[in-house]
Amino acid sequence: MTFFELIGTDPYVQRLNSWTKRIDDISERLVEVHVEGAKIASQAYREGQRTVYKRGVGQIKVTGGFSRRYMRMGDCPRIVSARHSLSSNAVQRPLRDAVYSWAGVQAARDGMCIVDVDLKSCYTSVFLGLLSDGRLDSVRSAVTSVGIWEYLRKTMERQNALHLYDKRFVKICVYSSFFEGGSKAMAEGILKTHREELGLSGSEFKASPMFPDLYRKAYDLAGILQNTDVIVDLRTVSEEIREKHLDEVVYTPTGQSVRLTKEGFRTTYPKVLQGYELGLLGQATMDLQKENPSIKVLAHCNDGNVLLVGQTEVETLMSQMSDHVDRIGKGLRLGFPQKVEYKVVEPDDSWGKVEG
């Protein structure tokens, strides 16, 4: 069985999918969650999110939260639901979290729980593994101490800029620096995320009353992160990689071949890291499920796997999965330990009506 065939195909997963369709119209509640998390309170932004969440909840009530068919995302190693626009993969994170916690109510009745699993520091750990020659000391120190996101959060706190911290956008800035992106590329990536979340065209977004505030905050965040030791090191090393491997063909663990060109480096090198990311997590999930057949794969979303496991087995199984990921990484000659991080989804029956 391939990783594609493992996701969402178990009959129990389909039963949970039917359960998720019974979720209430929770759009207003989620708008408040989203607005609070984004630290943006304008009425225009709130109205935009209300439209997005209304559409998302309606979508889940028709198709359910989990897809049973996945496919490659174009010519890159990533995979997406074959009906991506009609799955929980395509909705806002707060709604997706609500779907998982609502599905967790039924899972808990059966002695199971939902676990969201990702590679720890994902791109960064793979990058460190490929460059295990002593460079990137600041990045290595951040990852092995408190984790790169917490390290940058503390850095911003020291600079009295914690009001700008949003992990989603900090990730955009860090990953942009992998591929030589400066402040402009970082800020544009943040603004693109805002625009897509609101479902607006480029002209509509720029004409909206919320745009000036979002624009200022995006560039303020990019400007602060641009000068941190982590991003300075990442940008310097990515420039070295581009020059060293210019016009070479690189093969990913998932079988794609990528030619690194000067003009296309920003779009091609991410595919190399994506190939390692999916290869590590996908193979480790298959190995773990082979040893523990009761594990079910609910979904693959944003390069992470959503698993269904026994309530008393979580810690043991996640430790085994980290061991698998590190073993596979060593087989791929990665010189930095590869681990997983996970979050156990708390069941929440307030998202719908529990019957029986």
Counting copies of identical and different chains, the oligomeric state is single chain
**Main beta-sheet annotation:** 4 strands, antiparallel
**Share of residues in strands:** 5-15%
| Rg, Cα atoms, Å | 21 Å
The chain-level mean pLDDT equals 86
Structural write-up:
The protein has 15 helices and eight strands. By secondary structure, it is α+β, with helices and mostly antiparallel strands. Strands 6-7-3-8 form a four-stranded antiparallel β-sheet, sandwiched between helices. Strands 1-2 form a two-stranded antiparallel sheet. The mean pLDDT is 86.
Brief synopsis:
By secondary structure, the chain is of the alpha+beta class.
Task: Please give a handful of descriptors for the protein shown.
356 residues; alpha+beta; 4-stranded antiparallel sheet; two-stranded antiparallel ribbon; 57% helix
Question: What are the SSEs and their pairings?
Answer:
Elements: H1 3-6, H2 11-20, H3 27-38, H4 43-63, E1 70-72, E2 79-81, H5 93-109, E3 112-119, H6 122-130, H7 137-145, H8 148-158, H9 167-178, H10 183-198, H11 202-207, H12 211-226, H13 229-244, E4 249-251, E5 257-259, H14 265-291, E6 296-301, E7 304-310, H15 314-331, E8 340-344
Antiparallel strand pairs: 1-2, 3-7, 3-8, 4-5, 6-7
